[in-house]
Amino acid sequence: xxxxxxxxRYTYESGxxxxxxxxxxxxxxxxxxEFIGLIGHTGSGKSTLVQHLxxxxxxxxxxxxxxxxxxxxxxxxxxxxxxxVGLVFQYPEHQLFESDVFSDVVFGPRNMGLDKxxxxxxxxxxxxxxxxxxxxxxxxxxxxxxxxxxxxAIAGVLAMNPDVLVLDEPTAGLDPAGRDEILSLIKKLHDxxxxxxxxxxxxxxxxxxxxxxxxxxxxxxxxLDDTPKNVFAxxxxxxxxxxxxxxxxxxxxxxxxxGLNVDTGATTIDExxxxxxxxxxx
Length: 282
Ligand SMILES: Nc1ncnc2c1ncn2[C@@H]1O[C@H](COP(=O)(O)OP(=O)(O)O)[C@@H](O)[C@H]1O
Ligand SMILES: [Mg+2]
Prior knowledge:
Number of helices: 11
Bound molecules: adenosine-5'-diphosphate, magnesium ion
Oligomer: single chain
Number of strands: 10
C-alpha cells in the first residue's frame, strides 16, 4: 500500500491575485508501516500536502499513486482511498457534532455503508483503542477535556480501519500533559496496529522521540527527508528556515564544545543521559 508522490505541484487560486504555489515539485515515497514526522513552519505546505494523501485535494500537476494506482485516473475510486487513508484534521474537535461521543464515532462507518451493528462494533473498538472509558461513551463530546475530544476525533477516523493514519498538528493547543497523552496514544496505535502514521507538527520536540523518519518542508518544497539523527545534524540550517532541533541537540553540541566527548547525534533524553554518563565515567 505504498504512497508515491511524483513531482506534485499544487496552486491555490491560480489565475487570481491571491495565487499561492503551496506545493512546488514534491516527490516522495511512503512505505507500509512507516512512522513519519512532517515538519515545517506555518505556511510551508504541510496541510496542503496531507490533504493530497486522501484525495481531498488533487495535484495541479504531477501524480499520486496509491498502491500502484494513479488516483487522478477517471475511474479511480476516491471513496476507497479515503477508507484506506484516514485524515485527522487540525483542531478535529471542531468537527464533533453528534449529541454523544458514541454516535459521533459511529457516524463515519455508517456513512461508509456499514450496517448499524457492524458500525457500532467498529466504533466501540475504536473508542476502546484510544482509551476513552465506557462511562464517557454517552456524554456530550463538548463536556470532554481537550485531550479527550482529540482522542474521540481520532477514534472517528480509526473506526474506518484505515491502513494509513494522517494527523495534522494533533497536539496544537494542548497543554504538555495533553500533548504527551496524544503522542503516546499515536505511538501505541502505530506499534500495535502496525498502521502507517504521518504526524504533522511544527515542533521537532514532538516527533524526535517517536518517528523513524522526518520530512522537513520549507516554502512548498522538501528541505530534508531523513532519519531524526541526520535531520537534527542540520540544526543550523533548520534555524535558517524558522525551525529548531530538540533541546537535547543543543545541549550535546555545547557539552562537546566544552570538551566532553559525548554523542552529538543523541536525539532523545535517554540517549543523551547514557552518552553523558558514559563520557563522565571515561
Ligand atoms: N484555501 C487556501 N487558499 C489560498 N491559499 C491557501 C489556502 N490554504 C493554504 N494556502 C496557502 O498555501 C500555503 C501553504 O499553506 P498550508 O498548506 O496551510 O501550510 P502549513 O500547513 O504548513 O501551515 C500558504 O502560503 C498558505 O497561505
Ligand atoms: Mg497546517
